[in-house]
Each structure stands twice: as structure tokens, then as C-alpha cells.
Amino acid sequence: MSESALPVLYSFRRCPYAMRARLALHASGIATEHREVVLKTKPAHLLALSPKGTVPVLWLPGAADGGVLEQSLDIMLWALRQHDPLGWLPPSDAGMADALALIAHNDGPFKQQLDRYKYPNRSGLKSGVADRDEAAIWLRTLDARLQAQPLLSGEHFGLADAALAPFVRQFAHTDPGWFAAQAWTAMAKWLASFESSELFKAIMHKHAPWQAAHSENVGP
Ligand SMILES: N[C@@H](CCC(=O)N[C@@H](CS)C(=O)NCC(=O)O)C(=O)O
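Above: inputs. Below: predicted complex with glutathione.
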């Protein structure tokens, strides 16, 4: 197998989990080899590393423990624990617990409501409105937080902001007119500022789908 000295990131441009991993890797300054995945035809090497077949996956060639990180939050924490020049990691245990609680709600109930809102028929629903409205209750708590402080993480953009923003963005884009009509101005401003940031632009570069080199032994 051809081994890159760099960590290898299997990613998909529009996946919010992959976005949060790319955000943390970018903030950490750690260079990676980017491998863009087509979800319908996942590379054999990705599936050999991580049979569950989701992105993002970070592979650390040569790491003693196999070097496979297959959860987006683990990739974020790994990257930021190597280098955290922007101070994204919460400085206290209480701050970390707070960020992890927000992320748990995002990845649990909110993500489920988001999926049912976006694709109600996949869940046998006629409409996603009930899930949209459930999700909106939590989004209003984010808005209240952002009325009291500039960012979810406090004074500076940090772990919680990067972990949640790609998902809130997906929610907003499901019905932009409805989203814009809601009275969550602090949250809408936070989202708009994220979407227009250099950081966001930097992680949304387009990559051609990655293909294994012909000679590469990619079998499990
Ligand atoms: N818990 C995982 C979830 C990752 C995930 O579900 N990624 C989606 C894309 S957004 C995926 O790869 N789904 C597999 C597929 O669509 O085949 C993480 O945090 O990394």
C-alpha cells in the first residue's frame, strides 16, 4: 500500500460531520491528504479501515494503534489536542462538558429532527413540520445563548460552534424563507457570519472524487 506521511481524511464535501472534522483540522493547521468520497461507491480502502462506511474517517498511517478515527467528534478532538492555535478547546472541564452536551443534543435529537424535516417520506411521514417545530424549540435556546454571548463557545468561535454550525446551516437551507421569518436574529447572524467566513470557504473547496492508484493494495 502506498503510504502517505500525512494523515488521510476520507471526506464528503456536503456532509456536516465531515465539515466539522475539516473545520477542526483546518483550525489546528494539520495538513492532511484529502480523499473525496462518492457515497454510492465508497473506496475499498475506506471500508477496510472502517467497515461502518461513514465519513469522515481519519487514517494515521503508521500509528501503533491502527490509527483510525471514525467519528467526527473524535477527529475534532484529536486535531485540536495536537495543535490548538485559535483556542477552540474549552479551557475548563465545565466548558468541555457544556460543549459536549450541546454536541450530544445536536447529534442526537436535533439531527433526527433535521433528517425527518428534510426527508419526511423516508420516515413514512407526510410532512416534516412537526419535526421542524420540535427542532426550533432547541434552536431558540441557541438563540438565547447567542443573545447573551457572541458565540456558542463564549467570546471566541470554538469547538461547539464548529461542531454545530454545519447542522444548523443544513436546517436553515431546508426552507430558507421559513428560517428567515423566525425571530431568532442572534442565531441567524451567527450562522450568516459562519457561512461568510474565510474558515468556511477554506473547508468547502471542491475536490475531484479520489480513486485508489491502480497498484494500491486496497483489499481488507
Ligand atoms: N457518527 C458519525 C456520523 C457520520 C455520518 O453519518 N456521515 C454520513 C454522511 S453525512 C455518511 O457517511 N453516511 C453513509 C452513507 O450515506 O452511505 C460521525 O460523527 O462521524
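DSSP finds nine helices and four strands in the chain.
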